[in-house]
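Sample A.
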Amino acid sequence: MSRAALLLLLLPLTLTACDDAAKDDEGGADTAGADGADGADGADGADGVDGADGADGGPPDADGDGTPDADDCAPDDPAISPTAAEDCGGEVDEDCDGAVDCDDTDCAAEPACAMPTLTELFPTWNVYLAPTDITLIGSGFSAPGLRVEVGGADCPVTAVSDTEAVCTLPPGSTWGRYDVIVGNARGERTTLADAFTHLAPMYAADGRAGTAGNLYAIDPRSGAVETVAALEVGFTGLAFDPNGKLFGVQSTEYGDEALGSSGLYTVDPIGGAVSRIGDLVEDLGDGSVTNHDSIPDITFIGSQLYGWTEDSDQMVLIDTATGAVTDPGSDYLSSYGSGLASAADGTLIALPSAYSPAYLLDPATGLSTEASPALTIPEGLEWESGGAAVFANGDLYKLSGSTDSEGLSSTGALYTLDLTTGTFSATPVSTLPFYVDALAAPLP
């Protein structure tokens, strides 16, 4: 066959092959179209190989927050993802780190998430029979779930800011000194140790015959008497100031001077520890002094401490910083060991420990007016072993002493006294231990 004839035979085959190759290059339906079934139009089949979104070839992100569904703790919520900021009060784990709100370290600087601190509180005491509003000062109080405890008792919070909170402490069941604890919902707690004191409604102490006996707590509702602690000093007078601080006077005329010279003391109403302030000494203004060693009772009106002295049978003023005694020019009264009591309205009353009348005293001058009607002493009631008196919850209480067949002081008793009638209660509120002479009640 000639060369020319051979070329004519091969020409159709060559044209067919070239035509097929051109179709491949153009991405026709024969090849690439089949592979790109997921593509939108078959023309861009290569883009649709991976998938579900078909947008840029990345992994699925159903909520469009930029975090793949596989890495998103809330794939259907665009506000929650590992790249979101934690809302420290939203009660939701917005940033997917497993910690919610203040438990998240991202919230450590938020005031509402700070660990609570407690620096001070007021008041620092109450009489345990009554509810009390306590104001607490510190920080971190606006954290969720703020809780306050006083001696293990819940003190429900009634008002709060980040630096100040108020809680209402319900009545307690006994006297004592207690920790105050502030905590939050995360279980973080701060403690102010021995910061709050429950005082008993009334206290008494031994004093006469040189007795360094005990401090007693009295519940006048039931008449119950408890021993608080042993005392190093025998006291003839006790009194609380407006801040709940207990003072006592020791008068050596009534007993053994081995217990020390007469003086003014502070007394811990919970533990019984005593601290001497100074001697009960009066400067007479002429270079001489007199020691008042026979002060049977004391009482406060406001911050001023008053005493009754049997050295001259008159009212005196006592400096609580030094124990110094001042005579304001008081009347001289034959009271035979008077009790001294002050009412909430500032009335000052001198009450006898024998058969003398009661007197109303002017706190500024000590001038006296005999109370009317006269006191009616219950038959058989003796007063020689004690004369202390005190107002508590509006009632006037008076200590008495009874004697045995040999005329010796044996027991004491606590009575109420109605000044409008001059009569004592028919039966004692409490029976008290031997030689109890001092009586005090926290001021309202």
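Sample B.
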Amino acid sequence: MATIDEHRHEDERRQKNDAQTALVNRAISGDPAAFEELYVQKAQSILFHAYGILKSHHDAEDAAQEVVLRMYRDIGKLRAPEAFNSWMHRIVINVCYTLAAKRSGRKEDFDEDETVGEIAEEHIDYLPQEYLVREELFNELKAVIEGLPAKRRSAITMHYFDNMSYKEIAEAMDSTISTVSTNIVRGKIQIKEAMEQIMEQENSNMKAMGAAGTVTFSGVFGTIANQEFPRASVDSFTNRCAEAIKISCSQHIIKTPKSPSVLKITAIIAVSVIAVSGLIFGPQALNAPLSAETASQTEASPALGEKGLIEFVSDSSKGAHVNPAAASVTELDFEADFGEWEIAKKSSGEIVSSGEGMAVASPLTDIATAEGAGEYILYFGLYDENRQLVTTLSREFRVEQ
């Protein structure tokens, strides 16, 4: 049975989430002040998670700034404001692992742990307070946490520092609740056992020390985050983010989030295009894989009233939508001044590559190596000379090994 403290904690968490959802809704509607308030609130969380992956303050700050810029660019696409935390941390993971791969020349191991049977968590919810009081033990504790396998480290950080539920973490990591639970429990066991071994080497009495007080895992991660990224450091980072957003917008690198009216007009255009032909895929079309018949239809000329067509180039005998080598926007009925594109996994919506222009080549061919076989969607956003979004196009393709 839940205690009074647990009920109060859950009520506080619910109220905090409701307030955040309201703020996210304002940011989605194009309120720059709301977005600024959001990333100021989340700055330490983004930095701390990025640092846990990259293990470098400099790299973490570079990655975190890129995360904020992507959030600003894509906040208008978020369809579930209550899922903001999962959405944000998925961007953190994607950006950090892309950066880590570029720096090391290889993709960091981010494999899931095997699921295990139930483990009694009540015995590993606390650590001795002395781990935070004694400097040498605190440094050992940080080293142990930094040495956790990637998924354990990310999962346990999101749970105990960001107060995210197992479900939210599973969505952020494109995983399952049972796997998240396994990673968190194993992470706590690994931390506890590693620190006990360190204490045994120092011939300390764990029982006597434990009587002096304990600390929760949330307290541990909060203390580490505050040491690695104190308030002054976080404030400096948010100021740099504000300047980066200003510069990016002035150079049209990213666009201000669209207002609801613009998004509604875009949605109406997309629905109209879908109704006219099957070339631009909407939510209904995304539920079904491309068939040979559909592929042949996508090779045809665009129907009357369409604003454009994505054309694939491929040597595959199965059609241009299989292992495309390049793609470009054609048959436009207006003069596009600027374009940007994104490639996403069809199953999860995870963005695996993005860029600018009205054509894309090497990122398409790189997917087979970087991401593997599967079904993907290529999106184009096309803008006029005033940098106003005119239309969005999308088309599915498949990668086969």
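B remarks: The two ends are 52 Å apart (CA to CA). The chain has two domains: 1-253, 260-399.
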